[in-house]
Amino acid sequence: MSDFPVKTPFISLENSKRITSLRYFLILLVIFAHNRFVGDRIAETSILFNENAFGYWIKLFFGESISRGVVPLFFMFSSYLQYKKDDPYPRLLKKKARSLLIPFVIWPFINIALILLKMAVNNVVPAIEVFVHERAFLSWGAKEWIKSILGYGNKGGFPLLIQLWFVRDLFVLVVFSPIIKFFVKRFPIEYLIFISFLYFCDIQTDYMSNLAVFFYSLGFFCAEYKIDFFEIADKALWRFLFPLFALIWVYRWTFGVKYSVSEQVMGFAAVFVLIKLSKLFVQNEKFYKVTEYFAGISFFLYCAHYLFLFLNAQVFWINFFPMKNTFWCLAEYFVVWFIVAFVGTGVGILLRKICNPLFVVLNGGRG
Question: What is the DSSP letter of 318?
């Protein structure tokens, strides 16, 4: 999601390629994780939803397994590369304002404009209130607009476009990065204990995610103390790593749901699996070239996928394909995921071809 270059002089070419190879794949996992059209969400509505345990566990496998490592990995990659580049602070802020702050401000208004358009043409597909809160913003004052765009003051600290919390928190961490770098250099053990305590004990605020602080700081640790996380992951054998992660995952969703630490452990383990998986992505040059091409669309797809694309695709589906059994529930899960990924990617590719300057702005300066 952040600006990962294809070739960098400050890390090895292979590691750079492995980071690039993961970018689009990670966003596809995000889309799986955000397809939260499940029974507990619509229990109080009249929507027909009948899914058995098999369908429930299939969704958990795709949406709540290695996908839990996506956002942590993006924070770690971002800070690791930032530390390695070592740009002067004013230059760093200028670059990050272009790649993070400008898209963070623009994308919510694009979605609002699309919603207004939808209201104006009175879509054939009726809106369903549990998913679409289209008219709420029409009565907002200045305070509500600021709170909704930034997310501060909202429940959970989420902005209007929920997925943009990552962009917001990453920019804030960049602003305070000299302080984080100071603690990493001067008090490494004490600071590592502190951020680990925040993360694994799930001490959370509405103003900064403990996950963001932990993995962003972890990237600084790896850069400062020359810890090659790719090399560490590569030493793990799949025949041991896969069963271990499977046990952690099963425990998380059976016995560990009541305990937040199980989620933190699973997220940490998922990061390890994804890093190791990147080795497979770069072994075949043709496959890598495909991942390299779509990597340039990843940030655009991340920003575009949720509010308008996802929710309207779900509304469209339930009006034509009632989910009366597990087959239709799973069909919705995979078909809507494919539609959102396909449409979002296609729009990004088309926009890059016909109006590249606009695409670059929306994509955070990434051409």
Answer: H
- Token reading at 290: 């495909």
Predicted confidence band of residue 121 (pLDDT cuts 50, 70, 90): low
Task: Provide the terminal-to-terminal Cα distance of the chain, rounded to the nearest Å.
Answer: 13
Least confident range from 25-34, 39-48, 229-238: namely 39-48
Q: Are 309 and 53 in contact (CB under 8 A)?
A: no
228-249 burial by CB neighbour count: b if 16+ within 10 A, else e? Answer: ebbeebeeeeeeeeeeebeebb
Query: How far apart are alpha carbons 314 and 131 in whole angstroms?
Result: 9
In DSSP terms, which residues pair with 323 in a beta bridge?
49
CA dist., res. 357 & res. 355, Å (int): 6
Name the residue type at position 169.
D
DSSP output for 191-247: HHHHHHHHHHTT---SSS-HHHHHHHHHHHHHHHTT--HHHHHHTS-HHHHHHHHHH
Q: Is the pLDDT of residue 246 over 70?
A: yes
Q: Which residue has the higher pLDDT, 97 or 55?
A: 97
Q: How far apart are CA 88 and CA 85, in angstroms?
A: 9
CA angle 336, 338, 339 (to 5 degrees): 65
Q: Which of 262, 219, 236, 199 is nearest to 64 (CA)?
A: 262
Grouping H, G, I as helix, E, B as strand and the rest as coil, residue 23 is helix
Pick 39 or 311 by higher pLDDT: 311
Distances (CA, A) of 165 to 14, 42, 101, 209, 300: 30, 24, 11, 9, 15
Reading the block at residue 44, the tokens are 């109080």
Neighbours of 119 (CB within 10 A): 14
Query: How many angstroms separate the CA atoms of 238 and 214, rounded?
Result: 26
Look at residues 351, 328, 298, 346 and name the one whose alpha carbon lies nearest to residue 30: 298
How much is the pTM? 0.88
Taking alpha carbons only, the member of 167, 174, 220 closest to residue 195 is 220
- Exposed/middle/buried for residue 141 (C-beta within 10 Å: 0-12, 13-18, 19+): exposed
**Average pLDDT in the 318-334 region?**
83
Whole-number pLDDT of residue 270: 94
